[in-house]
Design brief:
alpha+beta; about 25% strand
Length: about 60
């Protein structure tokens, strides 16, 4: 993982209001990841992470 890089995709033709894109190259495969957050969500990011961790522990 020492030489893996995550860079912002500046070549996308998406309007500025759209979600940002990240590009990650692993070997000869390029992954484009778009991230978005719901404006109507009532759960904070901290709450979501806690919920996901609790669910993961329950599956063990």
């Amino acid at each position: 993982m020492s030489n893996e890089k995550i860079i912002e995709d500046t070549t996308t033709n998406a309007p500025a209001k759209d979600a940002p894109a990240l590009v990650k190259k692993i070997g000869r495969t390029t992954y484009i990841v778009r991230v978005h957050f719901s404006k109507t969500s009532k759960e904070t990011m901290s709450d979501k992470i806690k919920r996901m961790l609790k669910n993961e522990i329950q599956q063990m």
